[in-house]
User: What shape does this take?
Amino acid sequence: MVNALIVYGTRLGATASTSEEIARILREEGLEVRLVDAKKEKVKDIAGYDLIVVGSGIAMGKWTSEPEDFLKRFRGELAGKKVALFVSCGNAAPSPTAKPEEVAEARKKYLDDKAAQYDLHPVALGFFGGAYDYNNMPWWASMFMNAAKKDLIASGAKETKPGLYDTRDWDAIRAWARDLAAKARSG
Ligand SMILES: Cc1cc2nc3c(=O)[nH]c(=O)nc-3n(C[C@H](O)[C@H](O)[C@H](O)COP(=O)(O)O)c2cc1C
Assistant: This one.
């Protein structure tokens, strides 16, 4: 049995539902999965895991602090394990108005640079879009997102429920998780 740990940090909830879907696919692929919201639980030991997936939402160019704290605390031990990193962020939303160089820069900053910062050589990097629930948004987020709503709609974000704009490509997230399961199983 391949044991996987998913540790994520979220501010607005998107990374939680993305992580749940990754967990669902990994389980479907036969892995044993523990899913941890790093804001609610501090992981103490990673010895029993073959695959560690660490994910975060992005705000103002930054990861959430808890999964980053996880990377810091287990930096040495993670070097000997299969690790995957992913982010949920506005820059990853498929958009006809997105500038390719800005998307590439965001991917590098949020994923490649983060891996390098903790001396990691991830088996996979996931760059996924976000979700914006205008019905349920903290004040600091609505200040920013009310101004951005026009651009969000113009960029093709789908209103999947009233007030909820979801820019995630779920098929891409599932394909990423399936590929990750195959990598975790291979020697
Ligand atoms: C206040 C605020 C700031 C944001 N800043 C960024 C940013 O700097 N870069 C980016 O790509 N996305 C940014 N986003 C979009 C979020 O990354 C996106 O909503 C993501 O899904 C958030 O993940 P979470 O719901 O797990 O917290 C921002 C969103 C908000 C509300």
